[in-house]
Amino acid sequence: MTFRLRLFSLLVLLLAALPGFAASPPAPTAVAPGQPLTVHFFDVGQGDAALIISPTGKTVLIDGGPPEARERLAARLKSLVKGPLDLVILTHPHLDHLGGLITALRAVGTRRFMDPGFNHPSDAYRDLLDFVGDNVGQVMTPEPGPSSANGLLTIGLGEGVSLTVFWPRMPKEPFLVGTRSDANSNSIVARLTYGSTAFLLVGDAEPDTEAALLQRSLNLTTTVLKVAHHGGRHSSTAAFLAAAKPQAAVISVGAKNDYGHPAPETLSRLGDVGAHVLRTDQEGEVVAASDGQSVTLRTHGGTGALLVLPGDVDPSPVTSSRAVAPVRSGATSPQPREGGRTAPKTPAADSGTSQYVGLKGSKVFHRETCSTLKRSKSERMLYPNREAALRERRPAEDCHP
Q1: How far apart are alpha carbons 101 and 98 in whole angstroms?
Q2: Are 198 and 192 in contact (CB under 8 A)?
Q3: Residue 259 dihedral angles phi and psi, to the nearest 5°
């Protein structure tokens, strides 16, 4: 198989044919008492992984955490999932979101796999694509079909539960490029709704992503927000949070991480909108259960503190009946590669005068001027050029070396 990821241009038609999935919003259904929608925000350290279990037992894993958490994630999935997952979504191709996926998929399997289709030049991502191509029957990107409601891809999970993808929408709209991190900016952003409750799941969306979403007539209101980029200071802008109005915010973050996550500025902005903040570095796994009318959150995998939030959101994916307007980033889109994958931006040629630095115990490397290095007292490894650093580590997302 020369090209392992088979992209389905008629995605909506494909989804409509899959048992248990609907390619358009299901008709409103009375919420059945005693059948919760559950979302597990796993404690995977400095990374992201969340499992959705619908009232009908449909399962969706969103991201797979970093490599160091892969065995823990696989064991937790085996304890919660009987049989293959119905869908795995990789929000974007960074190691702290994909590092545990191969181990997880070997442990429980999946029927379908989705990612943004945004190319990334890393060995770990290529290995994942090879594994998926060999072991997963159906592979897709979140491109909506020509007849999809509101121009958005919506997957029905039964009992009135819907997962609607807001971004990206290639090839109908170009990827965002020329941003702080194009891979982050094109994270899959999805809204999970059940009755009058909602979960907004945003990967590592950047300010450019948030601005693009705000330009459209999307309904971003949510009961629970999965905070972008582990609480990094650039994401979760005031305008975005004002539109989302989260009652609770879950930050998936590693204890004593090298990035200073979550940033004080982000915590302050979340406080300004009245969101209860739950952090996996402090509370462990956060479990949210919705009966369609309220959301109950427990910490430490369901054994810790209890928080009950009333459902008060409109489940509609849009705020008005007008068509979704295209979003343009103002920059030239990447040139497409085979099968719809896009060529990554080529970094500027290394002048040979810069040094690159890796910290002991970290998987990334930084510019020698990076502020993270000034805060850290960890042992350092110097690299003479970017190519040498890339052979052992991935670029840090705070200074983009």
Answers
A1: 5
A2: yes
A3: -95, -5
Contacts of 374 (CB under 8 A, 6+ apart): none
Same domain (yes/no): 36, 167:
yes
pLDDT tens across the length of the chain (401 residues): 433 434 333 343 344 444 445 444 444 444 455 589 999 999 999 999 999 999 999 999 999 999 999 999 999 999 999 999 999 999 999 999 999 999 999 999 999 999 999 988 899 999 999 999 999 989 999 988 766 667 899 999 999 999 999 999 888 889 999 999 999 999 999 999 999 999 999 999 999 999 999 999 899 999 999 999 999 999 999 999 999 999 999 999 999 999 999 999 999 999 999 999 999 999 999 999 999 999 999 999 999 989 999 999 999 999 853 434 343 333 333 333 233 333 333 333 343 445 788 876 677 777 877 766 655 656 677 777 777 777 777 787 667 77
344 within some domain: no
Query: Does a structural domain hold residue 317?
Result: no
Task: Supply the Cα-derived Rg of the chain in whole angstroms.
Answer: 20
Q: Do residues 288 and 386 share a domain?
A: no
Instruction: Report residue 236 as tokens.
Output: 């979760």
User: Closest Cα to residue 329, out of 150, 182, 144?
Assistant: 182
2 belongs to a structural domain: no
Q: Is residue 304 part of a domain?
A: yes
Q: Where are the beta strands (DSSP E) in 82-238?
A: 87-89, 112-114, 138-140, 153-158, 161-167, 189-194, 197-201, 224-226
Name the domain boundary from 295, 310, 325: 310
Whether the model clears a pTM of 0.85, i.e. scores above it, the answer is no
Domain end: 310, 338, 358, which one? 310
Task: Report the largest interatomic distance among the alpha carbons of the chain, rounded to a whole angstrom.
Answer: 65
Domain count, the chain: 2
Same domain, 384 and 302: no
Q: Which residues, 6 or more positions from 391, have their beta carbon under 8 angstroms from its beta carbon?
A: none
- Do 186 and 176 meet the contact criterion of CB atoms below 8 Å apart? yes
Would you report the helix, strand and coil content of the chain in percent, each value rounded to 5? 25, 25, 50
Q: Where are the beta strands (DSSP E) in 42-146?
A: 50-53, 59-62, 87-89, 112-114, 138-140
Integer distance in angstroms from the first to the last C-alpha of the chain?
A: 34
Can you give the residue range of the structural domain that contains 362? Answer: 350-395
Residues 380 and 263 in one domain: no
